[in-house]
Amino acid sequence: MADRPDWTRAVARWWHAQWGEAMGYTPEGGIAAIESLNAPEGRQAALVALVDDVPAGSVFLTDRDLQTHRHLRPWLAGLYVLPEFRGQGVGEALMAAALDRAAYFGYDATYLYTAAPDYYRKRNWQTLETVLIGEEPHAIMQFRLEEPAR
């Protein structure tokens, strides 16, 4: 998304509706957070999937996503596909792009946390531990990257 800032507002709306509001973010705070992921000197990214040149979903690669596990990085976060594009491989493509970016940045693993671990287990993610976030159990998962780019 670094080269298409015009998509930032739409992606921020999706993210805010799905997670950000419950986390206490404002829509403007979501925009600022997404913009910071694409800083040229950083090793983070905000990625968007296109279907027929229409934004269909997004994912983030971020240094920090779970405050209790600051020693792990990077995190795959905010994987979201608009309902009308689900079941078409958009989520898979976004995840693959984020993992490719993590390897390019030199990481040998990527992490995420989720309340729906089965989706990721089917895609070769391994559960490291289960934590409670609020009252709900979440799996902290790891994906080992085969050959990170150095």
Question: In summary, what is this structure?
Answer:
It comes from Paradevosia tibetensis. Keywords: Acyltransferase, Transferase. It contains 4 helices and 6 strands, in the order ααβββαβαββ.
Notes on the protein architecture:
It contains four helices and six strands, in the order H-H-E-E-E-H-E-H-E-E. It has a domain of 104 residues: 3-Layer(aba) Sandwich (Aminopeptidase), CATH 3.40.630. The chain is an alpha+beta fold. It is globular.
Oligomer state equals single chain
> Uncertain regions: pLDDT < 50 for 5+ in a row?
none
Outline, from the CA principal axes? globular
Mean pLDDT equals 88
Tell me about the largest β-sheet.
Answer: 3 strands, antiparallel
**CATH fold label of the domain at 5-108:** Aminopeptidase
Distance between the termini: 23 Å
Report the β-strand fraction as a percent range.
Answer: 25-35%
Class of the domain at 5-108 in CATH? Alpha Beta
- What is the CATH superfamily label of the domain at 5-108? Gcn5-related N-acetyltransferase (GNAT)
The counted number of beta strands is 6
Q: Structural class, from helix and strand content?
A: alpha+beta
Number of helices: 4
Spatial ordering of strands, largest sheet: 1-2-3
The secondary-structure element order is HHEEEHEHEE
Keywords: Acyltransferase, Transferase
Protein name: GNAT family N-acetyltransferase
Domain N-acetyltransferase: 1-146
InterPro entries: Acyl_CoA_acyltransferase (IPR016181), Bact_Acetyltransf (IPR050832), GNAT_dom (IPR000182)
